[in-house]
Design a protein that fits this description.
It is built from seven helices and no strands. It has helices spanning about 5-30, 30-50, 60-90, 100-115, 120-130, 135-145, 145-165. α3 crosses α4 (about 100-115).
């Protein structure tokens, strides 16, 4: 038995899925990524619990969500490529195993998603501190800011990490 809400969502999906898939595929030129992005877009609409009847411009709404998802996918792939390029420079004995690489890539993706939305200087200070183990004085020198600013950046990053709600 279907509820009126699920009927609305089904109708919304049926009305816009084909258009969104074509729209995304033109931008990505990769059918699999386009299908994933279209699906993720509708999942976001579903998880937002918004009444689809209240969306005045559904195609603009959907394309905005899809564009953000495509940008996130691009950023994750760039991060992964940078990581793999770095691994390629390591001597064979120091390179992590395939399993370790996968775990590290997942950790990097989670870190990237966690820090998403923070200003670049705040992210950089946080990573210098947490990944490189640098002190606030060293970070301040590298970023060309005061230690007080680094403390503010760290407070902002830590608050953001604490409050973020990742799936």
């Amino acid at each position: 038995m279907s509820s009126p809400t699920s009927g609305k969502l089904e109708s919304f999906f049926n009305s816009h899925h084909h258009w969104l898939l074509r729209h995304v595929q033109r931008q990505l030129s990769n059918r699999a990524d386009a299908e994933d992005t279209a699906s993720e877009t509708f999942c976001q609409v579903l998880s937002s619990r918004i009444d689809t009847d209240e969306i005045r411009q559904p195609r603009a709404y959907l394309s905005t969500i899809a564009r953000r998802l495509m940008f996130d996918r691009y950023r994750r792939r760039q991060l992964e490529k940078t990581y793999l390029d770095y691994l390629a420079t390591l001597p064979e004995g120091l390179a992590p195993s395939a399993e370790e690489r996968t775990l590290l890539q997942e950790a990097l993706t989670l870190i990237d998603r966690t820090l998403d939305g923070l200003p670049l200087a705040v992210k950089t200070a946080f990573l210098y501190s947490q990944i490189d183990g640098l002190g606030y004085t060293e970070i301040a020198q590298l970023l060309g800011v005061s230690e007080r600013t680094v403390r503010r950046y760290m407070k902002q990053a830590l608050s953001h990490c604490y409050l973020i709600d990742l799936p």
